[in-house]
Amino acid sequence: MADKIRVVVLYGGRSGEHEVSLKSAASVLRHLDRARFEVIPVSIDKTGRWQWNDLAAIDPAQPSLPILLDAPEMRLARGTDGRGVLMPVSAGAVGPIEIDVVFPVMHGPLCEDGTVQGLLELAEVAYVGSGVLASAISMDKDVAKRLAEFAGVPVAPYRVLTRKAFAADRPASLARAIEGLSLPVFVKPCNMGSSVGIHKVKTLDALGPALDDAFRYDLKVLVEQGIDAREIEVAVLEGETLFASVASELNPNAQHEFYSYEAKYLDPDGARVDLPARLDAAQMARVRALAVQVFAALECSGLARVDFFLDRQTGEFCFNEINTLPGFTSISMYPKMMEASGVPYRELLTRLVHLALDRHQQRHALDRGYSS
Ligand SMILES: Nc1ncnc2c1ncn2[C@@H]1O[C@H](COP(=O)(O)OP(=O)(O)O)[C@@H](O)[C@H]1O
Ligand SMILES: [Mg+2]
């Protein structure tokens, strides 16, 4: 037992994607290689409480992990030699547990946006995926697009509005919102996910209400040129060099105006997936190269799913968004694309854990101040 790497699978979290995380984590628990790893499930409930969960009591077949009211509450503390320690909040529950690596299997704000990553940095524990910087910029759809564009990757034209400016002068903000754009436009909160707060706006009258709704979720909102687009995704995995999977295509069912929350989670026939995407060889090579370019431009680590639009009119790809902790359920695109590219789920997880340990070791070995 002692020589196994102790992996905390951290799941749940305070975002709107809490339930997706419970499914992703159930799947990760099922696939992590128990011959190599000692696995400790730690849940975060919707109020932000961390709890230790008894692995033996978890049914490996269940599609979604439960949040248990009476599981012992824990907090993360800095350990020694680059290991973190899970400390029980009340004595007698579970002893302190030294940990080697944390695998955050959570999505969205306060999970995937650098906040949890910052906490893990302070505890000096290794963790899977991108660091604070890349997590934060990747969650911000505006900053991510700016950096992608700076690296030469096309993005759809868009405007940014702040809630403050919108409240101060609504008519001026509405005019600025569509300057240089044509209908339809997409209104989206800058830092959300799962299509929450996103509106396809087809008339000028609908713009104000769409912005009102989007500003419920964020202080910054994007108004983006609607594109007649095919939706193409690529999974990127770090290795000796960056590896891009074959691309897949999501075809939202025609009943849905776009790939909305309903199409993603409520309608079992919400979208059809083509894996590999029906692209010609040049298109496939182009989108894989663009995915690697975005991953590098945003300084990501470990893994990311990079989503593109293929404009039906121009035939050009443009970068839409990046997910640094993509869905990991058994039907999620990231593991499926990797599997289709020759990296089976179990091996993928093993590689991610080792990448986390390598990155941590390199950073831990850095000098922290001047030494002659
Ligand atoms: N500019 C756009 N043109 C056409 N469709 C869009 C555009 N922006 C978003 N969409 C549609 O909305 C969906 C969700 O938008 P996205 O930016 O991916 O946000 P989320 O992070 O919530 O997934 C996309 O998958 C697509 O169907
Ligand atoms: Mg999306």
Automatic annotation (TrEMBL):
GO terms for molecular function: ATP binding; D-alanine-D-alanine ligase activity; metal ion binding. It is found in: Cytoplasm. Pathway: Cell wall biogenesis; peptidoglycan biosynthesis; Glycan biosynthesis. ATP binds at residues 141, 186-188, 194-195, 224-231, 320-321. Its main location: cytoplasm. GO terms for biological process: cell wall organization; peptidoglycan biosynthetic process; regulation of cell shape. It catalyses: 2 D-alanine + ATP = D-alanyl-D-alanine + ADP + phosphate + H(+). Mg(2+) 2 binds at residues 321, 323. NCBIfam families: D_ala_D_alaTIGR, PRK01966.1-4. Cell wall formation. This is D-alanine--D-alanine ligase.
